[in-house]
Design a protein that fits this description.
29% helix; 182 residues; alpha+beta; globular; 5-stranded antiparallel beta sheet; 5 helices; Aminopeptidase
Length: 182
């Protein structure tokens, strides 16, 4: 099966997940400026320029790797719910996670706590499991809701690590039917 060069559209009961486009910039910039969003990510709001660069990265990863992230919108309203998917971040993490695609999720402040992340990630992981044998995620140890979500999705703690001089949890998930490499 050839690797896609753009995110395929995925749908769930409430959500439509699509490829990033330039038209997503303002919604993504508003999400990145919301303290409810950046508190567990960077601790600081991202600039519009940073959001633009991340949006371009999201588009480009599909071409380079055949996977990437999606924009999630409420199917009924069109409102942005968040960005979720796989990234090849090449982060300076100790220990390294470069060998495995990283799954990540960011939801708007208004979308948090409503089951959207679970719903979207179930669809994303169903797509991913047919193509990629294992994924990793990193989570701030203080982010209890994301830790619970990752565990419900089948992620298990591999180890603790550091990223940008801060502690992180490194969790791994093997696709059903795949052979674990860890």
């Amino acid at each position: 099966m050839p690797a896609p060069t753009s995110a395929p559209t995925l749908t769930t009961a409430r959500l439509t997940l699509t490829a990033h486009t330039a038209a997503d910039l303002e919604d993504c910039a508003a999400m990145a400026a919301d303290p409810r969003v950046y508190a567990m990510l960077t601790g600081q709001p991202r600039t519009r320029e940073d959001v633009w660069i991340r949006l371009l990265r999201s588009i480009g990863q599909w071409t380079l790797f055949g996977y990437g992230s999606w924009i999630a919108r409420d199917t009924a309203t069109g409102n942005l719910i968040g960005e979720l998917g796989l990234i090849e971040a090449r982060r300076a993490i100790a220990p390294s996670i470069d060998a495995t695609p990283e799954v990540g999720w960011t939801l708007t402040g208004d979308a948090q706590g409503k089951g959207y992340a679970s719903e979207a990630l179930a669809a994303i992981l169903a797509w991913t499991d047919a193509r990629i044998p294992a994924t990793t995620c990193i989570i701030d140890p203080a982010n209890a809701p994301s830790i619970r979500l990752a565990e419900r999705l089948g992620y298990r703690l591999r180890t603790t690590g550091t990223y940008r001089d801060a502690p992180i949890l490194i969790l791994d998930r093997t696709a059903p039917g795949a052979i674990s490499v860890r």
